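Key result, reporting period 2: structure in, sequence out.
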C-alpha cells in the first residue's frame, strides 16, 4: 500500500515533468549549434525571409569577409533546410519579410591568430534590418553561421525578435588530420575545413608528413616528395597548400601545418 502510494507520487511527478517540457521547448524551439552563450528570444516568432534578402557590410572591405558573406547568402537562399522537429513558434506574415542583415566589424585588421576576439552580437528585430556586430571579421563569420541556422523552410522563414551574444570558451578549437599515414585529396581536405567552420571551430591541424609518407612537394627539396610520397598522384603542390590556406581564411579556420621529418 505504502509502496503503491509512493509509486503513484513518482508517476505523477514524471507526468508533471513531461507536461512541463513543452514550456522549456518553446524557449529553445530552434537549436543553434554550438549553443550560444546568450540566447534571448522572449516570444518565439518568425517571419518570411524576403526573396530579395541581402547581407551587406557597409563601407567594409575585407576579402575573406566578402567571401564568407557570399557563401552564406548562397547557402541561405539554396539550402531550404527542413528541421526534423518543426520549431514551436508563432509564424506571422503581419510583420514584414526580413530584407537585410547588416554586418559591422570594429577591427578589420585583426589577423586570425590564437585567441583573436571571436565574439559577436546578433539582433533580429521584428521590423527593420537584422544587425550583426563583431570585433573582428572572424567573429562576424561565427555570427553568419548562427544567422544561417535561424533560417529554414520553403518559402524561407527566419526567426525574429531575438538577441544573441556569443563568444567561444576556448581559443583553440580544432580538428587534426594525418595525411602522412593516409593521403587525402585536396577536395576532401577542403570539405573537412568546411565542416570545422560550420561547427565554429577555428583550427585545422594538418599533420602533413611523417615517416609513413612525405606528400608535401617542397620546391627546394623535390626528392623528399619524389621518394617519400605514396605516388606521383598523391602530392600536395605549393598551389594546393595555398588553396587550402586561403580556403581556411575564407572560413575563419587557421591552418597549422605539422611537418615531421622522415624517420622521426
Ligand atoms: C559609408 O560611407 C559613406 C561615405 O563615406 C557615408 O555617407 C555612410 O554614412 C557610411 N555608411 C555607414 C553605414 O557607415
Ligand atoms: C503565440 O501567440 C499567442 C497569442 O499571442 C500566444 O498565446 C502564444 O504563447 C504564442 N506562442 C509562442 C510559441 O510564443
Ligand atoms: C546596428 O549596429 C550598429 C553598430 O553597432 C549600430 O550603430 C546600430 O545602431 C545598430 N542598429 C540597430 C537597429 O540595432
Ligand atoms: C571582444 O570584443 C568585444 C566587443 O568589442 C568586447 O566587449 C570584449 O571584451 C572582447 N573580448 C575580449 C576577450 O577581449
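The corresponding designed sequence is given below.
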Amino acid at each position: 500500500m505504502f509502496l503503491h502510494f509512493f509509486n503513484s507520487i513518482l508517476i505523477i511527478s514524471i507526468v508533471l515533468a513531461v507536461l512541463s517540457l513543452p514550456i522549456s521547448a518553446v524557449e529553445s524551439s530552434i537549436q543553434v549549434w554550438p549553443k550560444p552563450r546568450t540566447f534571448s528570444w522572449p516570444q518565439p516568432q518568425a517571419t518570411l525571409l524576403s526573396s530579395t534578402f541581402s547581407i551587406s557590410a557597409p563601407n567594409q572591405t575585407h576579402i575573406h569577409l566578402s567571401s564568407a558573406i557570399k557563401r552564406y547568402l548562397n547557402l541561405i537562399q539554396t539550402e531550404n533546410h527542413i528541421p526534423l522537429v518543426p520549431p514551436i513558434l508563432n509564424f506571422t506574415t503581419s510583420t514584414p519579410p526580413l530584407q537585410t542583415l547588416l554586418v559591422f566589424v570594429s577591427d578589420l585588421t585583426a589577423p586570425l591568430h590564437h585567441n583573436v576576439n571571436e565574439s559577436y552580437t546578433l539582433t533580429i528585430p521584428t521590423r527593420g534590418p537584422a544587425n550583426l556586430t563583431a570585433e573582428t571579421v572572424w567573429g562576424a563569420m561565427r555570427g553568419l553561421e548562427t544567422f544561417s541556422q535561424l533560417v529554414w523552410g520553403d518559402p524561407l522563414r527566419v526567426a525574429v525578435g531575438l538577441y544573441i551574444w556569443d563568444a567561444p570558451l576556448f581559443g583553440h578549437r580544432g580538428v587534426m588530420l594525418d595525411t602522412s599515414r593516409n593521403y587525402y585529396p585536396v577536395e576532401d581536405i577542403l570539405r573537412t575545413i568546411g565542416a570545422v567552420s560550420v561547427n565554429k571551430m577555428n583550427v585545422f591541424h594538418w599533420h602533413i608528413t611523417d615517416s609513413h609518407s612525405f606528400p608535401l612537394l617542397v620546391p627546394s627539396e623535390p626528392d623528399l616528395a619524389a621518394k617519400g610520397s605514396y605516388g606521383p598522384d598523391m602530392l600536395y603542390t605549393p598551389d594546393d597548400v595555398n588553396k587550402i590556406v586561403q580556403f581556411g581564411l575564407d572560413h575563419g579556420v587557421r591552418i597549422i601545418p605539422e611537418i615531421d621529418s622522415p624517420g622521426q
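Residues 178 and 207 are 5 Å apart (CA to CA). Residues 26, 43-44, 88-90 surround 2-acetamido-2-deoxy-beta-D-glucopyranose (ligand 2) (CB under 6 Å). This case is discussed further under Risks and Mitigation.
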